[in-house]
Amino acid sequence: MFRIVRVSLFMVVILSIALVASMGLNILTYVRLTDEDPIAALYFEPVSEDVFTAHLVSDDPGVSGTYEILGDQWRIDAEFIKLKPWANIIGMDARYQLVRFEGRYRDVVRQNTAPFRAYELGAGDALDLINYLAEWNFLVDAEYGSSTYTDIKEDTVYRVYRTQSGIIIRSEPMPDPIGYEPTMLDDIRAWVAGN
Predict the structure, then answer these.
(1) pTM score, whole prediction
(2) Maximum CA pair distance of the chain?
(3) Which of 15, 62, 102, 136 could, after both became Cys, cross-link 118 (CB 3.0–4.6 A)?
(4) Which residues contact 114 (CB under 8 A, 6 or more apart)?
(5) Cβ neighbours of 86 (radius 10 Å)
(6) Among candidates 134, 158, 191, 131, which has minimal Cα distance to 76?
(7) Nearest 5 degrees, angle CA 156-CA 113-CA 146?
(8) pLDDT in tens, 116-155
């Protein structure tokens, strides 16, 4: 009888450890597959109607700078190498290189008729070796271009993130300068704008 209790207790401990390990693995899987890293930040200053000066900052070489953007939206493109999910789970991240930054118009007719300007970003060599070896690499799931765009808003900071499957944008209000005290009029404007 005592032996049955000991074996049962041992099994409960083993199953509890297996359950905790399984839950930990599920959490790790979720965290790794939804991992995001900020890769660029930018904001816009208006110059004239549909002309903006974009201030772009990134750790990627050759990307940071000031660009004149034409249009009421902006877009950033990247070459992207998506890894297999199990490679993400063991700690490897998708690879990217920012390659183009441009303005665009929400209206298709204006996009086809209005002035347009695009900029090449980066050196373009960082992914060449990886692209060359990709067909031999058992970790690579797919190679493709990833692009994201949004409306241009003043007083907004845009952050570009690398996910495990592409690039995305998140925006936030421009921070107030140090020492700035908002007035009642500023509070009313923020309330009307829904901030």
Answers:
(1) 0.76
(2) 88
(3) 102
(4) 50, 70, 71, 105
(5) 12
(6) 158
(7) 50
(8) 899 998 765 545 555 655 556 788 888 889 999 999 998 8
